[in-house]
Design brief:
The chain has 256 residues and is of the alpha/beta class. 39% of the residues lie in helices and 16% in strands. Helix 2 crosses helix 3. The radius of gyration is 17 Å and the shape is globular.
Length: 256
C-alpha cells in the first residue's frame, strides 16, 4: 500500500471473519508466523501489517510523525482500502497500544480486541534509543548486537529462539536509516493522544482479551492485572513459563 511517498507492507490471507494483526517494535508480521495458519483454518481472514519502517515496509520520510494516532490512521486507511468495515484486532507490545487507539477511535468498526504483553500505561523505563546520538551510534556500530540481545530478552526459555528468527530480524534491520527511524518512533509514539487514551481505559467497552506471559522481563504481570481491572469487558489469561512474546514462545497455548 502506497501512502504518499512510502510503502506499507501487508498480507491478506484466508476467508471469513477479518482479523488484523499488529506486531511490536523492532519486530514484523513474521512474529505471528506460529499463529496465522490456525486462524485461517478456523475461518478467519488474516490481515497482517508491517508498521512504518519495520519488516518489509519502507522507512517513512523524515517529517513522518510516529505518534500513536498517526500510525493508527495509517493502518485504518489500509483497512478502508481493503473495504473491511468490521474486524477484530490482535496487537502485541507496541502493536497493542496502536490497536487500543484504533479501537477507542473507531468503536463501531472493531468488534473484539486481543492485547498481548503491551506497554499500555507507557514505557516502563527510559528507552536507550531516546538518548542523544544513540540512534546514530546504533546505526553505525551496535545494530546486530542489540537486535540479538533484544530478541533473547523477550523469551523466558532462550532455547526456543531459533537462528532463523534472529537472522531474519537482523536482515530486516539492515535498511539504511532503520535505527534513526526507531529512535524517532520511541520519542514520538507516546503522544498527548496516548495520555488521553490511557486516562479513559475505564470507559473502554469493546470485548477485550488480555494475554500475558508470566515471566515477561519487560512488563510485569501487575501491568496486566491493573489494566484488566480497569476495563469493564475484559478477561485476563496468563501463560506460565512464557516471556514477552507468548504468541511465539507458547504458541500452541495462545492459539487455543
Amino acid at each position: 500500500m502506497n501512502t504518499t511517498n512510502y510503502n506499507i507492507y501487508y498480507t491478506d490471507k484466508g476467508e471469513g471473519t477479518p482479523i488484523l494483526m499488529i506486531h511490536g517494535l523492532t519486530l514484523s508480521s513474521y512474529s505471528y508466523r506460529e499463529n496465522v495458519q490456525t486462524l485461517i483454518e478456523n475461518n478467519f481472514r488474516v490481515i497482517q501489517v508491517d508498521l512504518p519502517g519495520h519488516g518489509l515496509s519502507k522507512i517513512p520520510p523524515e517529517d513522518f510523525n510516529f505518534s500513536v494516532e498517526n500510525i493508527s490512521d495509517t493502518i485504518f486507511s489500509l483497512m478502508k482500502k481493503l473495504n473491511i468495515n468490521e474486524f477484530n484486532i490482535v496487537g502485541h507490545s507496541m502493536g497493542a497500544v496502536i490497536s487500543l487507539y484504533l479501537t477507542q477511535k473507531h468503536p463501531n468498526n472493531i468488534k473484539n480486541i486481543i492485547i498481548i504483553d503491551s506497554p499500555i500505561f507507557g514505557a516502563p523505563h527510559k528507552l536507550f534509543l531516546t538518548y542523544p546520538l544513540m540512534g546514530y551510534l546504533t546505526e553505525i556500530f551496535l545494530g546486530k548486537l542489540i537486535i540479538k540481545k533484544y530478541l533473547t530478552s523477550m523469551y523466558y526459555d532462550r532455547d526456543k529462539i531459533d537462528d532463523q528468527f534472529i537472522d531474519r530480524s537482523i536482515d530486516l534491520s539492515n535498511k539504511k536509516g532503520y535505527w534513526l527511524m526507531l529512535s524517532k518512533f520511541f520519542k514520538e509514539v507516546f503522544s498527548k493522544e496516548f495520555e488521553k487514551m490511557k486516562s479513559n481505559y475505564h470507559d473502554f467497552n469493546t470485548n477485550t482479551l488480555v494475554l500475558w506471559g508470566e515471566k515477561d522481563k519487560w512488563l510485569s504481570l501487575e501491568v496486566a492485572k491493573k489494566f484488566n481491572d480497569l476495563l469493564p469487558n475484559s478477561e485476563l489469561i496468563i501463560f506460565k513459563n512464557c516471556g514477552h512474546n507468548p504468541h511465539e514462545e507458547c504458541s500452541e497455548d495462545v492459539n487455543k
